Automatic annotation (TrEMBL):
Protein name: AAA domain-containing protein
Alphabetic keyword roster: ATP-binding, Nucleotide-binding
Cellular compartments per GO CC: cytoplasmic side of plasma membrane; cytosol
Highest taxon in the source lineage: Bacteria
Gene Ontology molecular-function annotations: ATP binding; ATP hydrolysis activity
Gene3D superfamilies xref list: 3.40.50.2300, P-loop containing nucleotide triphosphate hydrolases (3.40.50.300)
All copies of domain AAA, residue ranges: 157-306
One GO process term, biological-process aspect: negative regulation of cell division
Species this protein is from: Acetobacter oeni
The keyword Protease appears for this protein: no
Length: 418
């Protein structure tokens, strides 16, 4: 028998009623400044100006809520509490029953999750370290007033990698992120090279290319799990590639439901689908971009790439996907290019991930057909951070959470101090 009272049970109707107007629709309390930064960014994105966020423990927050008005949504942090359930029950005793409660903590076990969501009526639970895309994805549906479409279908997560401008490094990042997720982090991963004519994912990952992807786009009725099994080229045990190399003289007529049907099939087999999207303006790219759960925009430190990144961000605001694109600054430190502060000023925010300019490592990898992320180098460190930010996959606790730019900068400048 459950010892805990449900957070939205009718027994809470005797909680003190307050007829005060809502102070803030959303009140959030987190116990550490790193999580506070992540949460602030997501709340700003979803409900700018309509929330309060304080760095306080669960007990302190409970005291404060006892005195103040009740929000519509409460985000509370129970990390570090010896008795998190007791804390939440105390909290339940004074909340109005219709408050949506989102909880952050440090326990990762399924039992705890079940106790909170089923036993206590908590709407959602996330454990630390938090990152922006994870918070947006799981808390996002509760933070909007109805215009956010949560990912409802079960299956793999689709990450679309998009170069702000040709040559910014989208293919390099997509191929290496795919390899990292599959072969290092051991998640079943498909890299889909949507550049049907001149794609080079298979070159970077040292595999063959066939007509599989073209057929899938043109004739969706032929695509099923067996078709994928036959067409996907194996890079390793858990990373596959789907690509095509269409003759430049030929015209591909992509069926309107071709890309979406393909994705619905591969989502059943793979945990992650990394799509290398050739350029924003093409028809195929446009239809593919809308399928992505998370867009990752790659820019190099040049003015044209900066300008086009802003245009891509603006374009994605106009669709219904609430999650903003992740921004990756690639080739950082390339001689004669923009500085980090210039890029940050231009974007109005820091890039989420910074990849240094590493021509030697990447040229050698390209020529030899092995992914650069296989080596133990600073390129791999950046891809690790990207995997954490875009896919919430972390093999290395040190690289998680914000502060990654600061850590990256420390490592980067250290190279010149030696
Ligand atoms: N961080 C980096 N440091 C140095 N060189 C890089 C870096 N990232 C990518 N490159 C190089 O830049 C070139 C272009 O990269 P890539 O093909 O990945 O770009 P792209 O944006 O996909 O280009 P396209 O528009 O042709 O699709 C390649 O030669 C690659 O090795
Ligand atoms: Mg490319």
């Amino acid at each position: 028998m459950s010892q805990v009272k449900s957070l939205d049970s009718s027994s809470l109707l005797d909680a003190p009623k307050k007829n005060l107007p809502y102070e803030h629709q959303i009140q959030a309390f987190v116990s550490d400044p790193v999580s506070e930064n992540v949460l602030r960014e997501v709340l700003d994105e979803f409900q700018s100006g309509n929330f309060s966020l304080t760095c306080q423990t669960c007990a302190q927050a409970t005291q404060r809520l006892r005195r103040g008005s009740t929000p519509r949504i409460l985000i509370i942090d129970v990390a570090g509490e010896d008795q998190p359930i007791t804390c939440l029950v105390d909290l339940a005793n004074m909340l109005e029953p219709n408050v949506k409660v989102l909880v952050i903590g440090d326990r990762q076990d399924a039992n705890f999750y079940r106790q909170l969501t089923r036993g206590l009526g908590v709407a959602e639970y996330l454990y630390k370290p938090l990152n922006r895309s994870m918070v947006a994805r799981f808390f996002g549906p509760f933070l909007t007033d109805g215009d956010y479409e949560p990912e409802t279908t079960r299956g793999g997560r689709v990450l679309g990698v998009l170069s702000a401008r040709g040559g910014s490094g989208g293919t390099t990042i997509a191929a290496n992120l795919g390899f990292y997720l599959g072969e290092v982090a051991r998640r079943h991963t498909l890299v889909l090279d949507a550049d049907l004519y001149t794609g080079s994912v298979s070159v970077l990952l040292g595999t063959k290319t066939d007509g599989g992807l073209r057929t899938a786009f043109e004739s969706p009725q032929r695509v099923d799990e067996l078709f994928i099994e036959r067409s996907a080229q194996r890079v390793g045990e858990r990373c596959d590639v789907l690509s095509s190399q269409v003759d430049l003289s030929e015209i591909v007529s992509v069926a309107s439901n071709g890309p979406a049907h393909l994705i619905s099939i591969v989502k059943k087999k793979y945990n992650f689908i990394i799509m290398d999207i050739p350029n924003y303006s093409g028809d195929v790219s446009k239809s593919i971009i809308d399928i992505c759960d998370q867009k990752v925009v790659i820019l190099d430190p040049t003015l044209p790439a900066l300008r086009d990144t802003l245009r891509i961000i603006a374009a994605s605001r106009s669709n219904t996907q609430g999650v903003r694109p992740l921004i990756v600054l690639n080739k950082f430190g390339q001689p004669g290019s923009l500085s980090l502060s210039e890029v940050t000023n231009g974007l109005g925010r820091q890039p989420d991930v910074v990849v240094p300019f590493l021509p030697k490592i990447l040229n050698e990898a390209e020529i030899s057909g092995y992914p650069a992320v296989q080596g133990n180098n600073s390129f791999k460190s950046s891809i690790e951070i990207l995997a954490q930010e875009a896919a919430s996959v972390s093999m290395n606790e040190k690289s998680s959470g914000p502060g990654v730019i600061r850590r990256f900068m420390a490592r980067f400048t250290a190279r010149f101090e030696k």
